[in-house]
Amino acid sequence: MMSGCRWKSWTARPLALVAAVGIALTAALGVAAHLAPDPGMSPLSLTISDYAVSNNGWPMNVAILVLGVTSLAVPLALQAVRARVGAVVQGLLLVWSLGLIAAAIVPTDPIGVTELSTRGYVHRYVSVAAFVALPVATLLAIRRLAVDVRWRGAVPRLRALAVTSVLALLGLYYVAFPGGRVMMGLVERILVVLELALLAVLVGRLHRLAGRTAPVAAGESVALGESVALGESVALGEPVALGEPVAVAEAVAVARPVALARPVQRGRVVPAQARLVATRSTSSR
């Protein structure tokens, strides 16, 4: 099973790079779409979708599509580094990606149309679903990631950006309905920048973790010469290969009592905690 572990650890890096390139391209194309807008267009009042359907707005539509496609790498990268975020979070990340793709494929109605068509309603609600899904997925994920030592440095930033994104969503709802769409373009762009920053922090941490050894799952054997991730425990009765070194900085955490009958193979370096438990168990006899 550890050969699969190495494969997953290796694939996490290109997946994170794909997502990072997508974020960079999205930002560049989004800026380009604002450089030569149609006459009379204002980013303060008109939405990103309005820019996407304008005569010179094709870079914006491409940006939305690129972000949606490359974001599909994020749930795969989370799985590759064994970030146990749960099926709901993975599903919400798919909603984020597929919602953006659908919004690019099904654009909104042209500027000036007062009554939305079916196409316009589809675009509106898949866009809303996407921008709601990402911060909600992050807030659900950090409840589990907070107990993973590999993620503790990123969790405060992820939480702050996710909460701020939710507040921006509430602000967008207000200006879209009770606020009469006043400054709607500005509020929407603030939301987009926040969610891009949130995604960038997430992808940055995934890229950082990609080069590390994946944690050992319960019941999984450790291959010869492989180290165990910091803070991860080895399942009770887990076999360890002959001559396996245990790095000082990556000592195996003793999370469960060690079985009295558990053999210590020749040449194995046993952590101090395990030796202490074994000594106490022998003395109690």
Automatic annotation (TrEMBL):
<feature type="transmembrane region" description="Helical">
    <location>
        <begin position="182"/>
        <end position="203"/>
    </location>
</feature>
<dbReference type="GO" id="GO:0016740">
    <property type="term" value="F:transferase activity"/>
</dbReference>
<dbReference type="InterPro" id="IPR009339">
    <property type="entry name" value="DUF998"/>
</dbReference>
<protein>
    <recommendedName>
        <fullName>DUF998 domain-containing protein</fullName>
    </recommendedName>
</protein>
<feature type="transmembrane region" description="Helical">
    <location>
        <begin position="85"/>
        <end position="105"/>
    </location>
</feature>
<feature type="transmembrane region" description="Helical">
    <location>
        <begin position="57"/>
        <end position="78"/>
    </location>
</feature>
<keyword id="KW-0472">Membrane</keyword>
<keyword id="KW-0812">Transmembrane</keyword>
<dbReference type="InterPro" id="IPR018357">
    <property type="entry name" value="Hexapep_transf_CS"/>
</dbReference>
<feature type="transmembrane region" description="Helical">
    <location>
        <begin position="125"/>
        <end position="146"/>
    </location>
</feature>
<feature type="transmembrane region" description="Helical">
    <location>
        <begin position="158"/>
        <end position="176"/>
    </location>
</feature>
<dbReference type="Pfam" id="PF06197">
    <property type="entry name" value="DUF998"/>
</dbReference>
<keyword id="KW-1133">Transmembrane helix</keyword>
